[in-house]
Structures are given as structure tokens and as C-alpha cells.
Design goal:
Helix content: 55-70%
CATH superfamily: MetI-like
CATH topology: MetI-like fold
CATH class: Mainly Alpha
Order of helices and strands: HEEHHHHHHHHHHHH
Largest sheet: 2 strands, antiparallel
Strand order of the largest sheet: 1-2
Strand content: under 5%
Length: 318
Amino acid sequence: MKFLHANSDRLIAILCILPSLIAVGIFVYAFIGWTIWSSLLKWNDMMPLRSIWPFPDNITLFPPNAPFAGLDNYYRLIFTDARFQQDIQNTILFTVLFIASSLFLGMFLAVLLDQRIRGEALFRAIYIFPMSVSFIVTGVMWRWILNPGTAQTGAIGVNQILEIIGLGFLKNGWYTDPAIGIKAVVIAATWQMAGYTMAMYLAALRAIPDELREAARVDGATEWQVFRYIILPLLNPVTLSAVIVLGHISLKIFDLISAMTGPGAGFSTDVPAYYMFDTVFRGNHFARGASIATLLLLMVSVLVVPYLIYNARTEVQR
């Protein structure tokens, strides 16, 4: 009876998760496979799609009767497409600056709040508030703030503030200047995500026993030495988790770019996700867009998969 009862419980559990497994299999993995296959074709305009039994002819679920191109789309993107090459450079620069600034500012704010200052709950809410808005809202807001103005309107936004306080020599074109371009977007992205890293670091700081710090101080360590040799090493797992999350966001960033700058002058703020949108929905170059999507998937996988393997091995060791 126990055996039958255990089997029935197992069957019920399988039936409960089966719809989710089917949905994930179709809408995630099947469409990933569909995208990868599309990237291997010469599908560059509106073409009739193939159907397959048992679906009737008017239900088209599969790539079109387009010629097979192999890896030609990838070769053209990587080695001959100047815009995609610029996008990769922008993405690398954005990722490095975004992660570094978010980690630094988040840790700085967390260390300040860890001093048990008065009004800590209010400051914590203010710092984490930007996470409650979408990147679209952030992009629109920072587009206004960093708008350099025109000859007719004069300086506005940050440039106007700089004029008022006597620092007019610091005015610049911000996101309209190709030399700055993607760096202005980093400011907006950091503003939104620094609160996230602050919350992670603050939770980690509060989890460090006070006895460790006191023991180091008794041994003659300065506050900087306590932070450098005691606290920082204990924050490494949090830093790694934050790098993975922020890196994942930066590699597939689209909504912030779309709302704030678009591709920018000379594609100075263009990124692969925005290029994919342009290519597919405005240019009808479906195979090229699928190739960009596949390369984005590979880039994110290179970042995330090693982290998942590391976490799995750590859990096994524990």
C-alpha cells in the first residue's frame, strides 16, 4: 500500500508540473530552436512559411521554404557588418562601465547605511526606489535630464544647472555627442540598478557577525584593514551574483536604449538587441535578425552557464 501511495503521489506531482513543462518546452526551447534554424537560412523578406502534418495548410509554424545559408549570416555579421561590430564595442564598453559603477556606488551606499544612521529606512527606500520603474520610464526621464538643448532653447536639463552654478565649461552634448554616447546611457542604467546592488551588499554586511570585526580591532587592525581583509572577502559571493545579474541585463539591454537615445549619431549608442529590432521589424531581414538573437543567447550563456555550474558544485560540496 505504501508503494502504491508513493507512486500515486509521484504521478500527481508529475501531472501538476506537466502543463508548465509543455509550455516551457514549446514557448522557450522550441522557439529557440526555431530561431537558430531560421538564422541558417536566406530569409530576408516576407516568404510563405511551411506547415507540417497534422496542422492544416493555413497554419504555418515553421521557417519558410528559403535556401539554406549555413553560417553565412554569422560570418557577414561578425566580419563584414560595420554596424554590428560597433554594437559589440558599445556593448563591451557599456557592460564594463555599468557593472563597475553599479558595484562601486551600491557598495558605497551599503557601507554608509550599515553605520546605523538615523533615518536609515527612508534612505534605503529612496536608494532602491529607481528599481520600481521600468527602463522605459528611466530612459524617457534621463532623456529629458541630459537633453543638451538647442541654439533656440538654450541650455536645459543638466547643462542649465551647470550654467546656473557657474560650471558652464562642463556642458556637453551628452547622448547626442558620439564621443560620449553610450557613457550617458551608463549614467541612467546605474541610477536604476545601484539600489539593487546596495540592497544585496547591505544584506550581506548585516549577515557578517560583529565578533569578527571586533576581534580584528582587538588585534590592532584599522577600520580600513577590517574592511579590506575581513569584510571584502566575505562579500565576494554577493559581488559575483551582482556581476551575473548586471551583466545579463547589460548584454540584452534594449528598452533603455529605445526610450533614451535610439541608435544614436554614428550608431554611438546602438546595441545588438536594438539592431535586431531594426533588422527584423523594420527591414524584414529575418535570418539576420535570428542570427543576432542567437549570438545574444550565446553571449548571455557564456556569462550565466559558468555561474550556474559553479553554484551547482558549491551546493554539492555543502
